[in-house]
Amino acid sequence: MRILGHALHRILQLSLLLLLLVGHSSSAQSLKQLQTQANKDRDGVARLDPDLFMKHVITEHKDYSVVVQLTALSPVYKCDACKTVDKAFRAVSRGWKKQSSSKDAAQRIVFGTLDMDDGEELFRQMSIEGVPQLVIFPASKGPHAFENPSPRGLTLGAKTSSPEGMASRLGELFGIEIKADVPVNYSKHLMNIATVAAGLYAVFLVYKYVDLRSLGRNIWAICTILFVLLMTSGFMWNRINEPPYVGQTRSGDPVLFAPTNSQQYGIETQIVAATYAVCALCIVALVRHVPRIQNSDQRTFVTFMFTVALILTFSYLNSVFRMKMPGYPFKLLLP
Amino acid sequence: MANKVLGLTAVDQTSLLRIAILGLISIVAIGSRLYSVIRFESVIHEFDPWFNYRTTRYLVNNGFDKFWNWFDETAWYPLGRVVGGTVYPGIMVTSATIYNALHMLNIPVDVRNVCVFLAPVFSAFTAIATYKLGKEVKNATAGLLAAAFIGVAPGYISRSVAGSYDNEGIAIFLLVFTFFLWLRSVRLGSAMYGALTAVFYFYMVSAWGGYVFIINLIPLHVFALLVMGRYSNRLYVAYSTFYVIGTLASMQIPFVGFQPTFTSEHMAALGTFGLLQLVAFANFVRTLLPDQHFQILLRGAVFSLFVVGVGGLVLLTMTGVIAPWTGRFYSLWDTGYAKIHIPIIASVSEHQPTAWPNFFFDLNMLIWLLPAGIYFSFRELTDNHVFLILYSIFAAYFAGVMVRLILTLTPIVCVMAGISMANIFETFLNVRNLPAVETDASTDTTGSGAAAISVSVAEAKEKKKTVDTQSTSSGLSAHTEAGSGSKKSGKKAKGSNKTASKASGTTGSKDAANEDASTLDAPLTAVTTSAAAAVRKPASKNQPPNPAMPAFSPKRLYALFPKIVVMANFLYFLCMFQWHCSWVTSSAYSSPSVVLASRSPDGSTHIIDDFREAYYWLRKNTKPDAKVLSWWDYGYQLAGMADRVTLVDNNTWNNTHIATVGKILASDENTAYELARRHDVDYVLVVFGGMIGYSGDDINKFLWMIRIAQGVYPDDVKESDFFNSQGQYAIGESASKTMLNSLMHKLCYYRFNEVMGPQAFDRVRKQKLPSSVTLDNFEEAYTTENWMVRIYKVKDLDNLGRSHRAVSVLEGPKTSRTMF
């Protein structure tokens, strides 16, 4: 926040300077200009340039507040956070646009964005070191004036980067309720509906053509075992922490296993679940399949085969674990 | 009978063996939990146990009534805490009972020792309970294996080493035993066992918040059975008895109170209870209606009731009649919830999701025996197996979401692994009669899946209750028991071979005395088949063993060879499992964290005892009502060891209060002084690891303090202020201004460079120290030997009303005192 504080300080200085230079234009005019700019945009976000910003955002006497997003959306900067915040910001702005049908409300808050491309010079002057940032320039007079009209930043955390979070935080700041207008993801809904429909149809087909009495239990067993395998191999960890699917070395070669025991890659879960499954399969085969073989030589061979498979799989699992946990003293065949 | 050994019949011998093996398992279970006592001393570990220990002492000294009405004004100053109403009293009452019983027997033992050794002793009980559970669902072999597994499984040891005096220590025993009683009551349809289940459920409620798992899993079991069309009067009797008594009993615990009647966590149980009554009624109607009509009626009714029930539940929750899910519980379902909304829950490391190495670390090979066990359960699928499968699914999910819930997964994994291993043993340890395998297989195939068998089992159960459905040969059990029991001695199954040759017939819950004596001479072969086969073809039992096969012919050896290989392999796996468990217990789970050990280069151990040093200093050198401010982690220890008033402790019920403490530590000195005076704080305690490299210190926890404080005071504390211009969380010269000025930073690094020299580094963060730290409003009161705990006194107001800063400027810099 120190950076931001510093930036705000600079902004204040600049604004004072500017006031001396340009004098001050009327508040209503300023608002009008900003709103014209805002109306050009689908989401009601005024695209600011240094001129607009200097004249209509950093003026001392205004009866409206401006929420400005400082960002760098051009792909050159590779700023992923900017995109997330921009999306949320636009959703909040849209929501506000919908919500503020009355004239009074519309005049209260204006949303604006200042991009690195438009105002690089300005960014440098304000010594802004990081984007994205959200700065609020509150109204200093009129019915919605703030007690302390100095500009303030809004911390962009995980919560405030989501449309709902940002809207609620802004709402708290302004003391009103702001609702974000999150676009309905129709394609996703359609996909879900299609999946459900396909699933239902599949269930119907199975119900109609497959003799459930002979299969039912096996299906349940397979589902249960798959679920348990996933759960015990760190699937939920992946869901929550969203690690990369595979790792990379410096030279760009893929790495399957994360080197520490508190981290894992996406593919690890699958490999580990598969090793568990093979081990379990060997056990089941030894108990269920082997005794049914009539020919004793064949039976001996199959027994050996499954035993060797079990040992190899388990030792593979063991060696992976040793790799992830240096100092683990036990090993089985594989290093 | 010719085959008597020591004058015991075969049945008696197997019982004796079983008892001996269980005894050995108990000894191993207790023994492997004693590392910390041997390495350090008999001391209470960590944080929460200190609260339990303190309340136990209070209970022992003041009696139950006083304990029940105890208002502790020394905690959460100035709010205080109603201890009796906000605690699960099970563990304290248990220890106090044991303590009083021992004293009644004139065995003078200290409360502390009772508390320290409670968890290991209960782990032995857990092993026995698991044996009973395994025996209930499969047979004694599976039971013994499961008991052996749970005795040493690190997933359970992590919570039950000596000194870890926490609710989980007894709760896992109660969990397993309640489930065992439940399964037995369902199998027998016995109201007595149903009531016993309720009694142990009550004990569980009194001991651990995890009782919610029981009160959801059992109804789920009932519901699943109903959906599968397995309603029986036994189920009705068992569940109705259990639910009514259990719920009424659980409401006697003040902390639970009326929750069972209105919180969502308990609604499933209530709903299932209602549903069961309806089904029972439907069953009555069935006697009055034609069969087909009835089936349609039933299915429609079940489905619509389920929909109505769930809909009603959602509606009631939404309208607020039923309390919404509590945060901790809710975070189990919506996994992102805690991260966003409840930093105090997310801040605890044991609430993180589980990566796969954790599972392997805590359960080793059991983790892949689990799926095999599920498969075998599906083959048989009696009512009991349905329960095991449900338990596996839910416990696996919960363990995946939260690291600490591996604890509830461990029992079922052990039971499932026991079943898998028992299957292996039964197939490959059967060396008595080789053609047996073929016979075995053929009966198995003719059975063609468990469907036919379990149906006939159900019939058999109905008709002839004396036949134990879970029966297998006790002879086989004897074999395998010997196999598992003689792991260490290496004397493989030699003696038990003999035993096995005589022992057979059904074992299990029913009295062996009821058995016909003639069955005892039956060969192993026939008995390995299922009970149904035994019921259908009793004649096959009496076939004599194949006499043509001499003991050591090459042909026999050849036939034996694959079995020996398989068994050797699994015995080696079992040994590896035991090594793994001992290693994990010894290296990861046996540190008390109150006392630390470090190893010097020459291999000798150095004990670091700074915590107790500091607490003892507080106890001896401060006023009895002195208020000590520290981060909440140390609250229980402060109360327990220093016996002083704390502002916040590990019972994190009041987020605002915790955030206030966080704010004090994160503010600059003057603000902090102001706030500290307003909260009557006399001393501030910080834990600092920079001197000896203890990474769990307050500077490393500081970010969480800031986050929690920011949650309540977003205007005063901002996380981003604590990062320097490079966006790093740093200390010393490279830190941000706010960080440098924060009370925490000052208290930790005050005078630190005087001992370490100007060029020194913080040994945890490997960063350069701040050059000078001034402190005006606080004065150093005590710093422990390794500088791990630093205690500061909050200065009184100046007599002349000046600020402390002005005073110190006036008086000039003090000559630095030497510490030691």
UniProtKB/TrEMBL annotation, chain A:
It is found in: Endoplasmic reticulum membrane. Its main location: endoplasmic reticulum. The keyword Membrane applies. GO terms for cellular component: oligosaccharyltransferase complex. SUPFAM superfamilies: Thioredoxin-like. The chain crosses the membrane at residues 189-207, 219-237, 271-289, 301-321. Keywords: Endoplasmic reticulum, Membrane, Signal, Transferase, Transmembrane, Transmembrane helix. Subunit of the oligosaccharyl transferase (OST) complex that catalyzes the initial transfer of a defined glycan (Glc(3)Man(9)GlcNAc(2) in eukaryotes) from the lipid carrier dolichol-pyrophosphate to an asparagine residue within an Asn-X-Ser/Thr consensus motif in nascent polypeptide chains, the first step in protein N-glycosylation. N-glycosylation occurs cotranslationally and the complex associates with the Sec61 complex at the channel-forming translocon complex that mediates protein translocation across the endoplasmic reticulum (ER). All subunits are required for a maximal enzyme activity. This is Oligosaccharyl transferase subunit ost3/OST6. GO terms for molecular function: transferase activity. It is a multi-pass membrane protein. It comes from Coemansia spiralis. Belongs to the OST3/OST6 family. Residues 1-27 form the signal peptide. The gene is OST3. The lineage of its organism: Eukaryota, Fungi, Fungi incertae sedis, Zoopagomycota, Kickxellomycotina. It holds the Pfam family OST3_OST6. InterPro entries: OligosaccharylTrfase_OST3/OST6, Thioredoxin-like_sf. GO terms for biological process: protein N-linked glycosylation via asparagine.
UniProtKB/TrEMBL annotation, chain B:
Residues 627-683 form the STT3/PglB/AglB core domain. Gene3D superfamilies: 3.40.50.12610. Residues 496-505 have a biased composition (Low complexity). The keyword Iron does not apply. InterPro entries: Oligo_trans_STT3, STT3-PglB_core, STT3_N. It catalyses: a di-trans,poly-cis-dolichyl diphosphooligosaccharide + L-asparaginyl-[protein] = N(4)-(oligosaccharide-(1->4)-N-acetyl-beta-D-glucosaminyl-(1->4)-N-acetyl-beta-D-glucosaminyl)-L-asparaginyl-[protein] + a di-trans,poly-cis-dolichyl diphosphate + H(+). Residues 17-417 form the Oligosaccharyl transferase STT3 N-terminal domain. Pfam families: STT3, STT3-PglB_core. Keywords: Glycosyltransferase, Magnesium, Manganese, Membrane, Metal-binding, Transferase, Transmembrane, Transmembrane helix. This is dolichyl-diphosphooligosaccharide--protein glycotransferase. The lineage of its organism: Eukaryota, Fungi, Fungi incertae sedis, Zoopagomycota, Kickxellomycotina.
